[in-house]
Structures are given as C-alpha cells and as structure tokens.
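Human: Can I borrow your eye for a moment on a structure tokenisation matter? Separate attempts, laid side by side, tell us more than any discussion would. Could you pick a protein and write out its sequence and tokenised fold? No explanation is needed for now; the record alone will do.

Assistant:
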Amino acid sequence: MINASIGISTHMGWVSTAVMALRGSNPRILRTDRIETADPADREALEPYHVAGGFDGLDRVPIPKDPAAVVARGLQRQRRHTLANLRRLFTALARDDIQVAHAGVLTGRGRAAPTLAKAVGSHTQIHISEGLAVRACITQCLESLSVVVKPIDQKTLFDAGHDALRLSEPEIMKLLADLTPEIAGSWRKEDKLAAIAAWIAINWGRSKNS
C-alpha cells in the first residue's frame, strides 16, 4: 500500500487536486485531476450565493423570493456532487494500491458574513462566500472519507513550505519543475500549488504519527 496525501486548490465550480507520496524524503506526484464541485449546468450548486444575490456572473438578474432556500439547496447539491467525484478518484487510487490519509486544502483570508443578507449584499462578499462554501464542502467530503484535513493559507504557502520542508520557495519550485504526474493529469500552476499543499500535509501527517 502506498501512503499518500492530496493537495487541493479550490475554484468556483471545480478544484485542482494533486496526489503525492514520498520515496524516502523525495516527493512523487502520483496524479493530478480537475474535479467538478457542481454540474456546470446547475447554477444553484455552481454559484449558490450569486443566484441568491441576484447575479448571473456580473449581470444583475431578479433576486429569488427565498434566497436562503436557494443557498441551502445549492450547497446540498454541491456536497453531493463533490463527494461523488472524490469517491470516484479514491476508488481509482485504491485500484493502484494508493491510500490517502491526509489532505492540504488551500484557503483564502475572506471572512464569513454574519448574515445571509450581508453574504449576498455585494459582489465582492458573494465571491468570498462562494470560496468559503467550496472549501467547507471539500473539507466535509474529505473528512467523510476518513481523510485528515490541514487548512493552509495560500498567501503564506511558501512560508508554510519552508517551515514544514526546510526548503525555500526557489528550491520547492525547482524540485516540482523536475517532476511530472506519474499516472495522469496536467501540471499547471494550480496543480503545483496543490502539490505543495499535499507535500506539507504528508510531512505534517508523518510528524503527527512519529
């Protein structure tokens, strides 16, 4: 059994994932994936706070009669869709004898609004609410799959990397530049950020178990 971690960089409607294992202290990128957190045709699940606030992208549209119900329905379908896709990924990993125990989820610094009215009161706050919702969704789904989640502030990712890995930002990026996913996936900037999160998480898991 290969013990691995997963790193996740979130976006509205999808996440980038990187699954990492270690060979000694050297990282292996087993695979990267883009996982949808909602059906692209299901706006309530894709962007529940936009719909509740009367936005379609940047365009204003009529505000629904019950914004709270829109958000509740959307988040429920978002969790269901995300969990199904994560289960498919974990099933594929298990076929390759890979078990994920820890996850690093990149977070932002936006604060949750105290009320739904404030959460949908401006386009800026709506985007903060969507980001918080996707990260909460991912965390809940991973925990339901028995994965221990470590939140990692994306703005200080390389500081966390230095603390956990004893490597500078150029050293981390040089090591990643020399790697490619072994099984499947792209290797773009968002994949590499997810890989750093996975690397921090797997070292964090090792230290907890030592």
Notes: Residues 41 and 162 are 41 Å apart (CA to CA).
